[in-house]
Amino acid sequence: MSLVLDELYDLILACLYGIADETQARRLEELLETEPTARSAYVDFLMLYTHLHRRKGVCLFLEGAVDPILNENAWQILAEQEKTAEPVPVERPAEETQPQPAVKQTPQPRVSKFSIYSLILSTAALIFLIAYAQISPIARSPQIGKLRRTVQAKWQGVSGHISEGCDLYAGPLNLAEGYAEIAFDSGAIMVIQAPSQFTLESAQQLFLQRGQVVVSLKGCAEQTFVVRSPTACVVDYGTEFGVTVQEDGKTETYVYEGQVQIRDSSNPVKFMKSMLLKAGQGAVADKDHRLISQEINPHNFFRTEEMNAHQQARRGSSYHRWKAWTYRLHRDPSLVAHYFYEPAKEDPDRLVNFMFPNRGSMQGIFGDQNKGKPSWTTGRWPQKQGVLFERKEHQAIVVPPDPVLSFNSPLTLCAWVYFTSAEQWGGHLISCRENQQINYQFSLFDNNYDYDYQRNRFEFRQYDGSGKVGLYSQTFVPSAGVWHHFAVVYDGTEIRFYVDGSLFQAVSYKGRTEPSAAEIVFGAVKINGYVLEEGDFDGIVDEFLIFKRRLSESDILDIYENGKP
Protein backbone atom coordinates (compact mmCIF):
# COMPACT_ATOMS: atom_id res chain seq x y z
CA MET A 1 0.00 0.00 0.00
CA SER A 2 2.99 2.32 0.56
CA LEU A 3 3.70 2.28 -3.17
CA VAL A 4 0.12 3.26 -3.88
CA LEU A 5 0.33 6.12 -1.38
CA ASP A 6 3.63 7.32 -2.86
CA GLU A 7 2.01 7.36 -6.28
CA LEU A 8 -1.07 9.09 -4.82
CA TYR A 9 0.99 11.88 -3.28
CA ASP A 10 2.87 12.44 -6.56
CA LEU A 11 -0.42 12.65 -8.46
CA ILE A 12 -1.97 15.07 -5.95
CA LEU A 13 1.05 17.37 -6.08
CA ALA A 14 1.05 17.28 -9.87
CA CYS A 15 -2.59 18.38 -9.89
CA LEU A 16 -2.01 21.06 -7.25
CA TYR A 17 0.93 22.51 -9.21
CA GLY A 18 -1.02 22.37 -12.49
CA ILE A 19 1.42 20.02 -14.27
CA ALA A 20 -0.70 16.85 -14.32
CA ASP A 21 -1.54 15.45 -17.76
CA GLU A 22 -4.77 13.69 -18.69
CA THR A 23 -3.38 10.24 -17.86
CA GLN A 24 -2.31 11.34 -14.38
CA ALA A 25 -5.70 12.94 -13.72
CA ARG A 26 -7.50 9.73 -14.72
CA ARG A 27 -5.17 7.66 -12.54
CA LEU A 28 -5.88 9.91 -9.51
CA GLU A 29 -9.62 9.57 -10.09
CA GLU A 30 -9.26 5.77 -10.35
CA LEU A 31 -7.37 5.55 -7.04
CA LEU A 32 -9.96 7.68 -5.24
CA GLU A 33 -12.84 5.60 -6.58
CA THR A 34 -11.36 2.15 -5.86
CA GLU A 35 -9.15 2.57 -2.78
CA PRO A 36 -10.80 3.62 0.54
CA THR A 37 -7.34 4.14 2.06
CA ALA A 38 -6.44 6.44 -0.82
CA ARG A 39 -9.56 8.55 -0.24
CA SER A 40 -8.70 8.94 3.44
CA ALA A 41 -5.09 9.80 2.63
CA TYR A 42 -6.27 12.27 -0.02
CA VAL A 43 -8.33 14.23 2.52
CA ASP A 44 -5.51 14.16 5.11
CA PHE A 45 -3.02 15.34 2.49
CA LEU A 46 -5.19 18.27 1.40
CA MET A 47 -5.82 19.32 5.01
CA LEU A 48 -2.07 19.16 5.69
CA TYR A 49 -1.26 21.06 2.51
CA THR A 50 -3.81 23.75 3.39
CA HIS A 51 -2.47 24.21 6.93
CA LEU A 52 1.12 24.52 5.68
CA HIS A 53 0.24 27.26 3.19
CA ARG A 54 -1.92 29.45 5.37
CA ARG A 55 1.30 31.13 6.56
CA LYS A 56 -0.26 31.56 9.99
CA GLY A 57 2.02 29.08 11.70
CA VAL A 58 2.87 25.46 11.02
CA CYS A 59 0.69 22.65 12.29
CA LEU A 60 2.87 19.55 12.69
CA PHE A 61 -0.07 17.37 13.65
CA LEU A 62 -3.67 17.29 12.40
CA GLU A 63 -6.44 16.57 14.86
CA GLY A 64 -7.56 12.98 14.37
CA ALA A 65 -4.67 12.15 11.99
CA VAL A 66 -2.46 9.14 12.67
CA ASP A 67 0.79 10.44 11.13
CA PRO A 68 2.62 13.72 11.79
CA ILE A 69 4.21 15.79 9.06
CA LEU A 70 7.44 13.82 9.51
CA ASN A 71 5.76 10.51 8.87
CA GLU A 72 7.17 7.02 8.82
CA ASN A 73 8.65 7.43 5.34
CA ALA A 74 10.59 10.53 6.38
CA TRP A 75 12.04 8.82 9.46
CA GLN A 76 12.94 5.79 7.32
CA ILE A 77 14.90 7.99 4.90
CA LEU A 78 16.84 9.50 7.80
CA ALA A 79 17.59 6.05 9.20
CA GLU A 80 18.84 4.79 5.83
CA GLN A 81 21.07 7.87 5.52
CA GLU A 82 22.57 7.09 8.91
CA LYS A 83 23.43 3.55 7.85
CA THR A 84 25.20 4.53 4.60
CA ALA A 85 27.01 7.66 5.74
CA GLU A 86 30.83 7.57 5.62
CA PRO A 87 32.66 7.74 8.95
CA VAL A 88 34.31 11.03 9.82
CA PRO A 89 37.56 11.09 11.83
CA VAL A 90 37.24 13.10 15.00
CA GLU A 91 40.42 14.22 16.84
CA ARG A 92 40.25 14.57 20.55
CA PRO A 93 42.06 17.47 22.20
CA ALA A 94 44.97 16.61 24.49
CA GLU A 95 44.10 16.59 28.14
CA GLU A 96 46.38 17.40 31.05
CA THR A 97 47.22 14.35 33.05
CA GLN A 98 47.26 14.38 36.80
CA PRO A 99 48.48 11.64 39.08
CA GLN A 100 45.67 9.28 39.84
CA PRO A 101 45.52 6.39 42.19
CA ALA A 102 46.30 3.15 40.49
CA VAL A 103 43.08 1.43 39.53
CA LYS A 104 42.23 -1.46 37.36
CA GLN A 105 41.68 -0.29 33.77
CA THR A 106 38.63 -1.44 31.83
CA PRO A 107 38.29 -1.02 28.08
CA GLN A 108 36.19 2.02 27.07
CA PRO A 109 33.65 1.75 24.21
CA ARG A 110 34.91 3.41 21.07
CA VAL A 111 32.86 6.40 19.89
CA SER A 112 31.66 5.72 16.34
CA LYS A 113 32.54 8.49 13.95
CA PHE A 114 29.81 7.15 11.75
CA SER A 115 27.18 7.69 14.50
CA ILE A 116 28.28 11.23 15.17
CA TYR A 117 28.15 12.13 11.51
CA SER A 118 24.76 10.47 11.10
CA LEU A 119 23.41 12.38 14.09
CA ILE A 120 24.59 15.65 12.57
CA LEU A 121 23.00 14.79 9.25
CA SER A 122 19.72 13.68 10.84
CA THR A 123 19.47 16.84 12.94
CA ALA A 124 20.20 18.98 9.91
CA ALA A 125 17.60 17.15 7.86
CA LEU A 126 14.98 17.58 10.59
CA ILE A 127 15.71 21.31 10.89
CA PHE A 128 15.58 21.65 7.12
CA LEU A 129 12.21 19.93 6.86
CA ILE A 130 10.64 22.06 9.58
CA ALA A 131 12.10 25.25 8.10
CA TYR A 132 10.95 24.24 4.62
CA ALA A 133 7.43 23.72 5.88
CA GLN A 134 7.42 27.28 7.23
CA ILE A 135 9.06 29.17 4.38
CA SER A 136 8.27 26.97 1.38
CA PRO A 137 7.96 29.14 -1.74
CA ILE A 138 5.28 26.83 -3.22
CA ALA A 139 2.09 28.82 -3.85
CA ARG A 140 -0.72 28.22 -1.39
CA SER A 141 -3.84 26.39 -2.54
CA PRO A 142 -6.63 28.70 -3.69
CA GLN A 143 -8.94 29.94 -0.98
CA ILE A 144 -12.43 28.46 -1.40
CA GLY A 145 -14.36 31.10 0.53
CA LYS A 146 -15.17 32.51 3.95
CA LEU A 147 -17.35 31.54 6.87
CA ARG A 148 -19.76 34.44 6.58
CA ARG A 149 -21.86 34.06 9.76
CA THR A 150 -23.26 31.50 12.18
CA VAL A 151 -26.20 30.98 14.54
CA GLN A 152 -25.39 28.95 17.67
CA ALA A 153 -22.94 26.88 15.63
CA LYS A 154 -20.78 24.12 17.14
CA TRP A 155 -18.18 22.29 15.05
CA GLN A 156 -16.61 18.88 15.61
CA GLY A 157 -13.25 17.53 14.49
CA VAL A 158 -11.92 20.95 13.47
CA SER A 159 -8.21 21.65 13.85
CA GLY A 160 -7.82 25.12 15.27
CA HIS A 161 -10.36 27.86 15.80
CA ILE A 162 -13.17 28.46 13.33
CA SER A 163 -15.27 31.60 13.61
CA GLU A 164 -17.19 34.13 11.54
CA GLY A 165 -15.04 35.80 8.91
CA CYS A 166 -12.30 33.14 8.78
CA ASP A 167 -10.96 31.79 5.48
CA LEU A 168 -12.05 28.33 4.35
CA TYR A 169 -9.95 25.85 2.39
CA ALA A 170 -10.46 22.39 0.94
CA GLY A 171 -11.27 19.70 3.49
CA PRO A 172 -14.01 18.10 5.58
CA LEU A 173 -16.19 19.92 8.13
CA ASN A 174 -18.74 18.68 10.64
CA LEU A 175 -21.41 21.11 11.87
CA ALA A 176 -22.81 19.45 15.00
CA GLU A 177 -25.24 22.19 16.13
CA GLY A 178 -26.77 25.40 14.81
CA TYR A 179 -26.48 26.99 11.38
CA ALA A 180 -23.69 28.44 9.26
CA GLU A 181 -23.44 30.48 6.08
CA ILE A 182 -20.50 30.21 3.68
CA ALA A 183 -19.66 32.75 0.96
CA PHE A 184 -17.72 30.99 -1.81
CA ASP A 185 -15.24 32.85 -3.97
CA SER A 186 -17.33 31.80 -6.98
CA GLY A 187 -20.16 34.02 -5.71
CA ALA A 188 -22.31 31.20 -4.35
CA ILE A 189 -23.85 31.53 -0.89
CA MET A 190 -24.55 28.34 1.06
CA VAL A 191 -26.50 27.90 4.31
CA ILE A 192 -25.84 24.69 6.28
CA GLN A 193 -28.18 23.27 8.89
CA ALA A 194 -26.82 20.95 11.61
CA PRO A 195 -26.16 18.12 11.93
CA SER A 196 -24.25 18.08 8.64
CA GLN A 197 -21.02 16.45 7.48
CA PHE A 198 -19.54 17.79 4.26
CA THR A 199 -16.29 18.32 2.38
CA LEU A 200 -15.40 21.57 0.66
CA GLU A 201 -13.87 20.47 -2.65
CA SER A 202 -13.64 23.77 -4.54
CA ALA A 203 -15.29 27.17 -4.80
CA GLN A 204 -17.90 25.52 -7.02
CA GLN A 205 -18.26 22.03 -5.57
CA LEU A 206 -19.22 20.33 -2.32
CA PHE A 207 -19.58 16.74 -1.15
CA LEU A 208 -22.49 16.41 1.31
CA GLN A 209 -22.17 13.14 3.21
CA ARG A 210 -25.25 13.84 5.35
CA GLY A 211 -27.27 16.85 6.42
CA GLN A 212 -28.87 19.79 4.67
CA VAL A 213 -27.69 22.77 2.60
CA VAL A 214 -29.29 25.54 0.56
CA VAL A 215 -27.19 27.05 -2.23
CA SER A 216 -27.96 30.36 -3.91
CA LEU A 217 -26.29 31.70 -7.05
CA LYS A 218 -28.49 34.78 -7.42
CA GLY A 219 -26.63 37.37 -9.44
CA CYS A 220 -24.14 34.77 -10.71
CA ALA A 221 -25.89 33.71 -13.91
CA GLU A 222 -22.67 32.54 -15.57
CA GLN A 223 -21.66 30.31 -12.66
CA THR A 224 -22.59 26.75 -11.76
CA PHE A 225 -22.40 24.89 -8.47
CA VAL A 226 -22.31 21.14 -7.81
CA VAL A 227 -23.47 19.33 -4.68
CA ARG A 228 -22.38 15.69 -4.63
CA SER A 229 -23.83 13.07 -2.28
CA PRO A 230 -23.29 9.30 -1.85
CA THR A 231 -26.16 8.60 -4.28
CA ALA A 232 -26.51 11.64 -6.54
CA CYS A 233 -25.04 14.77 -8.00
CA VAL A 234 -27.02 18.02 -8.18
CA VAL A 235 -25.81 20.52 -10.78
CA ASP A 236 -27.13 24.05 -10.38
CA TYR A 237 -27.43 26.61 -13.16
CA GLY A 238 -27.53 30.01 -11.48
CA THR A 239 -30.50 29.54 -9.15
CA GLU A 240 -31.45 28.66 -5.56
CA PHE A 241 -31.99 25.09 -4.43
CA GLY A 242 -31.88 22.89 -1.33
CA VAL A 243 -30.39 19.43 -0.80
CA THR A 244 -30.93 17.00 2.08
CA VAL A 245 -28.91 13.79 2.49
CA GLN A 246 -30.13 11.20 4.99
CA GLU A 247 -28.06 8.60 6.84
CA ASP A 248 -28.65 5.95 4.16
CA GLY A 249 -27.54 8.34 1.40
CA LYS A 250 -31.07 9.17 0.19
CA THR A 251 -30.86 12.62 -1.43
CA GLU A 252 -33.76 15.08 -1.66
CA THR A 253 -33.64 18.19 -3.84
CA TYR A 254 -36.01 21.14 -4.08
CA VAL A 255 -35.71 24.11 -6.47
CA TYR A 256 -36.74 27.61 -5.34
CA GLU A 257 -35.69 29.52 -8.43
CA GLY A 258 -34.30 28.65 -11.87
CA GLN A 259 -33.47 25.02 -12.56
CA VAL A 260 -31.11 22.23 -11.51
CA GLN A 261 -30.19 18.83 -12.88
CA ILE A 262 -30.09 15.86 -10.53
CA ARG A 263 -27.98 12.88 -11.65
CA ASP A 264 -27.94 9.28 -10.44
CA SER A 265 -24.23 9.26 -9.55
CA SER A 266 -22.02 11.25 -7.22
CA ASN A 267 -19.60 11.68 -10.11
CA PRO A 268 -20.52 14.84 -12.07
CA VAL A 269 -19.27 13.24 -15.29
CA LYS A 270 -20.07 9.53 -15.02
CA PHE A 271 -23.83 9.02 -14.73
CA MET A 272 -26.56 7.06 -16.50
CA LYS A 273 -29.75 9.03 -15.77
CA SER A 274 -30.63 12.63 -14.98
CA MET A 275 -33.71 14.73 -14.28
CA LEU A 276 -34.22 18.46 -14.88
CA LEU A 277 -36.07 20.26 -12.09
CA LYS A 278 -37.63 23.72 -12.32
CA ALA A 279 -38.82 26.15 -9.63
CA GLY A 280 -41.30 24.51 -7.24
CA GLN A 281 -40.28 20.96 -8.20
CA GLY A 282 -38.52 18.32 -6.13
CA ALA A 283 -36.98 14.88 -6.60
CA VAL A 284 -35.32 12.07 -4.66
CA ALA A 285 -32.33 9.85 -5.43
CA ASP A 286 -32.57 6.74 -3.25
CA LYS A 287 -29.83 4.38 -2.10
CA ASP A 288 -30.26 2.38 -5.32
CA HIS A 289 -29.59 5.57 -7.34
CA ARG A 290 -33.15 5.74 -8.68
CA LEU A 291 -34.46 9.23 -9.51
CA ILE A 292 -38.07 9.86 -8.44
CA SER A 293 -40.15 13.05 -8.68
CA GLN A 294 -41.54 13.94 -5.28
CA GLU A 295 -43.45 16.79 -3.65
CA ILE A 296 -41.22 18.35 -1.01
CA ASN A 297 -42.20 20.94 1.60
CA PRO A 298 -40.18 24.05 0.63
CA HIS A 299 -40.26 25.18 4.26
CA ASN A 300 -38.12 22.19 5.31
CA PHE A 301 -34.93 24.02 4.34
CA PHE A 302 -33.14 26.66 6.41
CA ARG A 303 -32.53 29.61 4.07
CA THR A 304 -30.78 32.98 4.23
CA GLU A 305 -34.00 34.81 5.16
CA GLU A 306 -34.42 32.57 8.20
CA MET A 307 -30.84 33.22 9.29
CA ASN A 308 -31.48 36.97 8.98
CA ALA A 309 -34.51 36.63 11.26
CA HIS A 310 -32.54 34.65 13.86
CA GLN A 311 -29.79 37.26 13.92
CA GLN A 312 -32.28 40.09 14.43
CA ALA A 313 -34.09 38.10 17.12
CA ARG A 314 -30.81 37.67 19.01
CA ARG A 315 -30.55 41.47 19.06
CA GLY A 316 -33.88 41.73 20.90
CA SER A 317 -36.45 42.26 18.12
CA SER A 318 -39.76 40.63 19.09
CA TYR A 319 -40.96 40.92 15.50
CA HIS A 320 -38.00 38.91 14.25
CA ARG A 321 -38.41 36.48 17.14
CA TRP A 322 -41.91 35.77 15.79
CA LYS A 323 -40.69 35.66 12.19
CA ALA A 324 -37.91 33.19 13.02
CA TRP A 325 -40.47 31.06 14.84
CA THR A 326 -42.83 31.02 11.82
CA TYR A 327 -40.13 29.38 9.70
CA ARG A 328 -40.01 26.54 12.22
CA LEU A 329 -43.80 26.50 12.41
CA HIS A 330 -44.10 26.00 8.65
CA ARG A 331 -42.26 22.69 8.94
CA ASP A 332 -45.26 21.23 10.77
CA PRO A 333 -47.03 19.05 8.16
CA SER A 334 -50.36 19.47 9.98
CA LEU A 335 -50.39 23.24 9.36
CA VAL A 336 -52.55 23.65 6.24
CA ALA A 337 -53.05 27.43 6.26
CA HIS A 338 -51.22 30.51 7.52
CA TYR A 339 -53.03 33.75 6.61
CA PHE A 340 -52.56 37.45 7.43
CA TYR A 341 -48.80 37.31 7.19
CA GLU A 342 -48.46 40.15 4.70
CA PRO A 343 -50.24 41.19 1.49
CA ALA A 344 -49.19 39.82 -1.88
CA LYS A 345 -46.80 42.32 -3.46
CA GLU A 346 -48.25 41.91 -6.92
CA ASP A 347 -51.91 41.98 -5.79
CA PRO A 348 -52.95 43.74 -2.55
CA ASP A 349 -56.48 42.31 -2.88
CA ARG A 350 -55.18 38.76 -2.52
CA LEU A 351 -54.72 37.03 0.83
CA VAL A 352 -51.79 34.61 0.66
CA ASN A 353 -51.75 31.23 2.35
CA PHE A 354 -48.05 31.12 3.16
CA MET A 355 -48.05 27.38 3.71
CA PHE A 356 -48.90 26.91 0.02
CA PRO A 357 -48.09 30.26 -1.63
CA ASN A 358 -48.28 28.76 -5.13
CA ARG A 359 -51.64 27.04 -4.67
CA GLY A 360 -54.10 29.57 -6.11
CA SER A 361 -57.15 27.74 -4.75
CA MET A 362 -56.01 28.46 -1.18
CA GLN A 363 -55.61 32.21 -1.63
CA GLY A 364 -58.24 34.62 -0.32
CA ILE A 365 -60.04 37.31 -2.35
CA PHE A 366 -60.92 40.67 -0.78
CA GLY A 367 -64.63 41.30 -1.27
CA ASP A 368 -67.31 38.95 -2.61
CA GLN A 369 -70.69 39.49 -4.30
CA ASN A 370 -72.47 42.14 -2.26
CA LYS A 371 -69.63 42.37 0.28
CA GLY A 372 -66.99 45.09 0.31
CA LYS A 373 -63.25 44.85 0.80
CA PRO A 374 -61.61 45.10 4.22
CA SER A 375 -58.40 47.14 4.37
CA TRP A 376 -54.79 46.48 5.24
CA THR A 377 -53.57 48.22 8.38
CA THR A 378 -50.68 48.10 10.86
CA GLY A 379 -50.46 44.79 12.68
CA ARG A 380 -48.76 43.78 15.92
CA TRP A 381 -45.50 45.45 14.89
CA PRO A 382 -44.73 48.38 12.57
CA GLN A 383 -43.00 45.93 10.17
CA LYS A 384 -46.15 43.83 9.89
CA GLN A 385 -49.69 44.27 8.61
CA GLY A 386 -53.12 42.99 9.56
CA VAL A 387 -56.62 43.30 8.11
CA LEU A 388 -59.22 45.75 9.42
CA PHE A 389 -62.88 44.63 9.27
CA GLU A 390 -65.60 47.22 9.98
CA ARG A 391 -69.15 46.15 10.81
CA LYS A 392 -71.95 47.62 8.66
CA GLU A 393 -69.44 48.12 5.86
CA HIS A 394 -70.33 44.67 4.43
CA GLN A 395 -66.75 43.34 4.28
CA ALA A 396 -65.40 39.81 3.81
CA ILE A 397 -62.52 37.74 2.43
CA VAL A 398 -63.40 34.53 0.58
CA VAL A 399 -61.18 31.48 -0.08
CA PRO A 400 -62.51 29.13 -2.82
CA PRO A 401 -63.30 25.48 -1.86
CA ASP A 402 -60.27 23.23 -1.49
CA PRO A 403 -60.17 19.65 -0.13
CA VAL A 404 -57.09 20.47 1.98
CA LEU A 405 -59.07 23.07 3.95
CA SER A 406 -62.48 21.33 3.97
CA PHE A 407 -62.28 18.88 6.89
CA ASN A 408 -63.95 18.25 10.26
CA SER A 409 -61.55 16.97 12.90
CA PRO A 410 -59.10 16.93 14.43
CA LEU A 411 -58.50 20.64 13.95
CA THR A 412 -57.13 23.75 15.60
CA LEU A 413 -58.00 27.35 14.67
CA CYS A 414 -55.87 30.24 15.98
CA ALA A 415 -56.13 34.01 15.47
CA TRP A 416 -54.53 37.23 16.71
CA VAL A 417 -57.17 39.99 17.03
CA TYR A 418 -57.39 43.59 18.22
CA PHE A 419 -60.56 45.51 19.14
CA THR A 420 -60.48 49.30 18.97
CA SER A 421 -63.83 49.79 20.76
CA ALA A 422 -65.27 48.35 23.97
CA GLU A 423 -68.82 48.90 22.66
CA GLN A 424 -68.64 47.05 19.34
CA TRP A 425 -66.30 44.16 18.63
CA GLY A 426 -66.07 40.60 17.39
CA GLY A 427 -68.37 38.64 15.11
CA HIS A 428 -67.72 35.74 12.74
CA LEU A 429 -63.97 35.17 12.55
CA ILE A 430 -64.03 32.24 10.11
CA SER A 431 -66.54 29.86 8.60
CA CYS A 432 -66.01 26.90 6.29
CA ARG A 433 -69.52 26.04 5.16
CA GLU A 434 -71.84 25.53 2.19
CA ASN A 435 -75.16 26.90 3.47
CA GLN A 436 -76.17 24.49 6.28
CA GLN A 437 -73.30 22.05 5.69
CA ILE A 438 -70.75 23.41 8.19
CA ASN A 439 -67.26 21.95 8.48
CA TYR A 440 -66.22 24.48 11.13
CA GLN A 441 -67.20 27.96 12.28
CA PHE A 442 -65.45 30.03 14.97
CA SER A 443 -66.88 33.30 16.30
CA LEU A 444 -66.90 35.65 19.27
CA PHE A 445 -69.99 37.81 19.70
CA ASP A 446 -70.39 41.10 21.55
CA ASN A 447 -73.45 42.27 23.47
CA ASN A 448 -75.11 43.61 20.31
CA TYR A 449 -75.91 40.23 18.80
CA ASP A 450 -79.55 39.24 18.25
CA TYR A 451 -79.67 36.15 20.47
CA ASP A 452 -79.07 36.30 24.20
CA TYR A 453 -77.47 32.84 24.42
CA GLN A 454 -74.74 33.94 21.96
CA ARG A 455 -73.87 37.35 23.41
CA ASN A 456 -70.39 37.80 24.91
CA ARG A 457 -69.49 34.18 24.13
CA PHE A 458 -67.25 32.13 21.86
CA GLU A 459 -69.04 29.96 19.34
CA PHE A 460 -67.83 26.78 17.65
CA ARG A 461 -70.17 25.11 15.21
CA GLN A 462 -70.36 22.03 13.00
CA TYR A 463 -73.60 20.97 11.36
CA ASP A 464 -74.91 18.50 8.81
CA GLY A 465 -78.56 19.55 8.84
CA SER A 466 -79.66 17.66 11.95
CA GLY A 467 -78.82 17.40 15.63
CA LYS A 468 -77.11 19.97 17.80
CA VAL A 469 -76.22 23.13 15.90
CA GLY A 470 -73.41 24.79 17.86
CA LEU A 471 -71.60 25.14 21.16
CA TYR A 472 -71.18 28.36 23.15
CA SER A 473 -68.65 29.10 25.86
CA GLN A 474 -68.89 30.82 29.19
CA THR A 475 -69.18 34.61 29.15
CA PHE A 476 -66.09 36.42 27.95
CA VAL A 477 -65.50 40.13 27.33
CA PRO A 478 -62.12 41.03 25.77
CA SER A 479 -60.17 44.19 26.52
CA ALA A 480 -60.15 46.97 23.95
CA GLY A 481 -56.81 48.33 22.75
CA VAL A 482 -55.01 45.04 23.51
CA TRP A 483 -53.82 42.24 21.22
CA HIS A 484 -55.54 38.96 22.13
CA HIS A 485 -54.80 35.45 20.95
CA PHE A 486 -57.86 33.18 20.55
CA ALA A 487 -57.77 29.46 19.74
CA VAL A 488 -60.24 26.60 19.53
CA VAL A 489 -59.18 22.93 19.50
CA TYR A 490 -61.51 20.09 18.48
CA ASP A 491 -60.72 16.36 18.39
CA GLY A 492 -64.20 15.03 17.52
CA THR A 493 -65.36 14.68 21.13
CA GLU A 494 -64.27 17.82 23.01
CA ILE A 495 -64.01 21.56 22.35
CA ARG A 496 -61.25 23.51 24.10
CA PHE A 497 -61.23 27.34 23.99
CA TYR A 498 -57.96 29.20 24.72
CA VAL A 499 -57.37 32.89 25.48
CA ASP A 500 -53.86 34.38 25.43
CA GLY A 501 -52.17 30.99 25.67
CA SER A 502 -54.25 29.64 28.57
CA LEU A 503 -57.17 27.21 28.61
CA PHE A 504 -60.44 29.15 29.00
CA GLN A 505 -62.96 26.27 28.88
CA ALA A 506 -63.25 22.62 27.82
CA VAL A 507 -66.65 21.19 26.82
CA SER A 508 -67.75 17.86 25.34
CA TYR A 509 -69.12 18.23 21.83
CA LYS A 510 -70.18 15.89 19.04
CA GLY A 511 -70.12 17.48 15.60
CA ARG A 512 -70.48 16.17 12.08
CA THR A 513 -68.41 13.29 10.74
CA GLU A 514 -68.40 13.77 6.95
CA PRO A 515 -66.85 16.97 5.52
CA SER A 516 -68.08 18.66 2.36
CA ALA A 517 -66.30 20.91 -0.11
CA ALA A 518 -66.89 24.47 1.07
CA GLU A 519 -65.35 27.90 0.74
CA ILE A 520 -63.85 29.75 3.67
CA VAL A 521 -65.20 33.18 4.60
CA PHE A 522 -63.28 35.51 6.92
CA GLY A 523 -65.25 38.26 8.69
CA ALA A 524 -68.81 37.09 7.92
CA VAL A 525 -71.15 34.13 7.43
CA LYS A 526 -72.51 33.30 4.01
CA ILE A 527 -75.86 31.47 3.82
CA ASN A 528 -77.66 31.79 0.48
CA GLY A 529 -75.89 35.13 0.23
CA TYR A 530 -75.05 37.01 3.42
CA VAL A 531 -77.26 37.21 6.51
CA LEU A 532 -77.21 38.72 10.00
CA GLU A 533 -75.34 41.94 9.45
CA GLU A 534 -74.77 42.27 13.20
CA GLY A 535 -72.58 39.13 12.99
CA ASP A 536 -70.08 40.74 10.63
CA PHE A 537 -66.68 41.01 12.27
CA ASP A 538 -65.46 44.28 13.78
CA GLY A 539 -61.75 44.58 14.61
CA ILE A 540 -58.27 43.81 13.27
CA VAL A 541 -57.20 40.27 12.43
CA ASP A 542 -53.43 40.00 12.27
CA GLU A 543 -52.82 36.30 11.66
CA PHE A 544 -54.85 33.11 11.22
CA LEU A 545 -53.61 29.51 11.51
CA ILE A 546 -55.46 26.32 10.57
CA PHE A 547 -54.03 22.99 11.74
CA LYS A 548 -55.25 19.56 10.80
CA ARG A 549 -54.51 18.18 14.26
CA ARG A 550 -55.36 18.74 17.91
CA LEU A 551 -52.75 21.07 19.38
CA SER A 552 -51.76 20.54 23.01
CA GLU A 553 -51.80 23.21 25.71
CA SER A 554 -48.02 23.59 25.37
CA ASP A 555 -48.42 24.04 21.59
CA ILE A 556 -50.95 26.84 22.10
CA LEU A 557 -48.75 28.50 24.70
CA ASP A 558 -45.79 28.27 22.30
CA ILE A 559 -47.78 30.08 19.61
CA TYR A 560 -48.80 32.78 22.07
CA GLU A 561 -45.32 33.32 23.59
CA ASN A 562 -43.59 33.54 20.22
CA GLY A 563 -46.27 35.74 18.67
CA LYS A 564 -47.08 38.27 21.36
CA PRO A 565 -45.91 41.82 20.59
CATH topology heading of the largest domain: Jelly Rolls
Instruction: State the name of the first-level CATH class of the largest domain.
Output: Mainly Beta
Tell me the Rg in angstroms: 35 Å
How would you state the average pLDDT, rounded? 83
Q: How many beta-strand runs?
A: 29
- Give the quaternary arrangement of the chains: single chain
Low-confidence stretches: 53-75, 113-121, 131-140
How many angstroms does the end-to-end distance come to?
65 Å
For the largest beta-sheet, the strand count, sense and barrel status come to: 13 strands, mixed
Structural class: alpha+beta
Question: How many domain modules?
Answer: 3
β-sheet strand percentage = 25-35%
Helix content: 10-25%
Tally of helical runs = 8
Corresponding CATH architecture of the largest domain = Sandwich
* Outline: elongated
Summary, kept brief:
The chain has 565 residues and is α+β, with helices and mostly antiparallel strands. Helix content is 20%, strand content 33%.
Q: Could you please describe the fold and organization of this structure?
A:
With 565 residues, the protein is of the alpha+beta class. It folds into 3 domains: 1-84 and 114-141, no CATH class; 145-300, Jelly Rolls (Sandwich), CATH 2.60.120; 335-563, Sandwich (Jelly Rolls). The protein contains 8 helices and 29 strands. It has helices at residues 2-16, 22-34, 36-52, 72-84, 113-135, 304-314, 318-329, 553-563; strands at 145-156, 167-168, 171-184, 189-202, 205-216, 225-228, 233-236, 240-245, 251-257, 259-263, 274-278, 282-285, 291-293, 335-339, 350-351, 364-366, 375-378, 385-389, 397-399, 411-418, 427-434, 437-444, 457-463, 470-475, 483-490, 494-499, 502-508, 520-522, 539-547. The chain is elongated, with a radius of gyration of 35 Å.
